[in-house]
Amino acid sequence: MEEGRPIFLQVAELLETAIIDGSLPEETQVPSTNELAAFHRINPATAAKGVNQLVDDGVLYKKRGIGMFVSTGARAKLRERRREEFADQYVQPLLAQARRLGIGAEELKSMIDLREGER
Amino acid sequence: MSTVVTAQGVTKRFGQTTALDDVSFTLTENTIHGLLGRNGAGKTTLMQILTGQNFATSGELSVLGQHPYENDEVLAGVCFIKESQTYPQNFQVRHALTAARLLFPGWDEEFAAALVDDFQLPLRRQVRKLSRGMLSALGVIIGLAARAPLTFFDEPYLGLDATARQIFYDRLLADYAEHPRTIVLSTHLIDEVSNLIEHVLLIDRGKILLDESAEDLRTELVTVSGPVAAVEQVAANAEELHRERLGNLVRATLRGRFDPVERDRVTGLGLELAPVSLQELVVRLTSTSNGAGNLRTAGKGDPR
Hints:
A: 2 strands; elongated; B: alpha/beta; Alpha-Beta Plaits; 12 helices; 13 strands; globular; disordered C terminus
């Protein structure tokens, strides 16, 4: 776990990422709070807070007596949200650093095109 | 959640020395608390008072709803694992475990046996012939298997190697998850336990410096570095705990509301923003020459 950010948020994000990349498909069961706590070596109450946030958000839902499951439609919803955050989280700092180094917009675009072409 | 311990204005004096100075706090049920502070800060004294092994000079105290001193009902629910626990002269390891089984109503014999295996403790060896690490392991096993509703671990792992400590943390977490209870973990190895504890109590010179959720602390504390003028702008909205300077470059440890908006503002000023670990925070708060008093005067005259 990273320093400086609440652990429960990081737990929620890890689950979200697993849902987005398909390793936690919709309508499958997610690991229990205790399993998450043991795996990440964190306090179970903190793990529970992360899971509960996703429940409140409608990403996970609870099957009484069984556990937590990924909601139908969760993947598309999370993907949409991450796309919205992408500009702020990645493009903004990229531009800030480029500006510091005197890299102009055109040069930056050609760098991206070049890398993209290599793939 | 309910409260298992309430301390109200607890003071303890030893002659001229004030070990605990008007300390007030509560411990929440089924929470893992980190009791942190330097040597001599008053941690052990506090735990002794909470477990009925010492008197407070003054103040109100309630443990599991009652006063702990010579109170069998309370003490049956309390387990205190000390750094330097002594055992009767000719006790073997298995005798110590049997004594613990008789003492603690919640004792789990199977769990104890599994822990003995984990820590590779020789059951028939005399306790006084155990190595320092093995003696610590014995304490840890008793503290875990006792499953007491209120368990204190006071520097439980002197001499335990990194592997054995990890076993302790893993077993503690797993068992706590299955059998929630109130745990107070006093340790100097703060980095190792910072993700395990839910609530932090920091004591310095007999006073409580911090009484806060560990998650809140993670976001409230940052190190900001960059040109003086920009750092000043950020520091104006926060409490300044520490400052280092190299030419025009300043690195300040700040405590305040660093939500995403404020973080954007800080990086927008061209400053580097870095997290502060719990261990760094404790070092910062307790290394000033006159402790709590300096908190408010660190760096500048008036940080507010």
